[in-house]
Protein: CPBP family intramembrane metalloprotease
Organism: Clostridium aminobutyricum
Amino acid sequence: MKLDKKNTTSNFYIAFTLLISAVLWFLMFIIKPMNFWIEMSLSISILVALSYWVKRDLFQLSKITWRAIIIGILSAIILYAVFYVGNIVSGYLFPFKEAQVLSVYSNKSQGSPLLIGSLLLLLIGPGEELFWRGFIQQSLATKLGETKGYLLSTLFYTGVHIVTGNFMLIIAALVCGAFWGFMYKKEKSLVPVIISHALWDFTIFVLFPLIK
């Protein structure tokens, strides 16, 4: 009886945080009540705080090893290459691609490269992994098994981006969610995934954006 109650409570918190994430993404991309980067940082902080309230070992990361660092760096490079090629190919497939990608990059005007880069590297990238992989995927994997947990968390990560109405952003979320989710499933550690996400964010938004 206690186990059933615990599972019901856990399911409620997973569903609740997913609902909150969808609302926050809708506010960020559609309503836009404030500076995008500040709002993104606040949104991620809220989700991580809610996750920590339920999963107190969220920040107990595995030891940072050279293997984790190398995997994180190489995977970020591979994912950037995938997006670089995808950006070219999608230009031939979707006539609306340019406008939708530009709408995402337009947020760069709301902050200096130093501010944006710092937030992506130190807060946004790591925070997203703590929430999506460390809390959502791990919780689902514990309940349903690693493969189902991976697939469902990828779908949820993609689904949250549907509220933006931006097809290219939704596809990007699907690719990223599947990529980082698979990394987490195989490595059993958030460290390389956090490094990968943070470096990829920094590279694609600050260092080498796909659209100037």
Q: What stands out?
A: The chain has one domain: 2-207. The mean pLDDT is 94. The first helix runs from residue 2 to 31.
